[in-house]
Amino acid sequence: MEREKLKIYGFFSPGIMSSAVSFLTTLLTILAFVTERKSGVLERLLSTPLKEIEIVSGYAFVYEIFRLGYS
Fold first, then answer.
1. Side-chain half-sphere exposure of 61, counting CA atoms within 13 A
2. Which of 6, 48, 56, 67 is 20 to 30 Å from 41 by CA-CA measure?
3. Measuring CA to CA, how many Å separate 47 from each of 1, 12, 15, 33, 39?
4. Residue 29: which of 42, 46, 14 has the closest Cα?
5. How remote is the C-alpha of 31 from its chain's centroid?
6. Cα separation of 46 and 24, whole Å?
7. Does residue 69 contact residue 39 with C-beta atoms inside 8 Å?
8. What pLDDT is attached to residue 37?
9. What pLDDT, in 10s, does the model give residues 28-70?
10. Residue 20: which H helix or E strand, with range?
């Protein structure tokens, strides 16, 4: 009985850990947007000829690389 419980934990642990890392990278992306909006950097980025989707995808790409490095 005890061995079966340990097998279940070993099966679910990697999934839970990777979900937590994915959640944290999403949280870091959101925090980066908020701090840059407060400091005025986001307004300066929006005044460039880049589209909003290009700016957002750039942020997501960088944090996705961090996530892949830590998982």
1. 6
2. 67
3. 63, 46, 41, 16, 15
4. 42
5. 10
6. 25
7. no
8. 82
9. 878 887 888 888 887 888 888 989 889 888 888 887 887 777 6
10. helix 2-39
> How many distinct structural domains can be found in the chain?
1
Both tokens assigned to 24: 């944290």
Rounded to 10 degrees, what is the CA torsion of 29, 55, 37, 19?
Answer: -10
pTM of the shown model:
0.58
pLDDT for the residue 1: 54
Give the pLDDT score at 49.
92
What's the pLDDT tens digit per position in 1-14? Answer: 566 666 766 777 78
DSSP 58-69: HHHHHHHHHHHH
Q: Which amino acid is at 34?
A: V
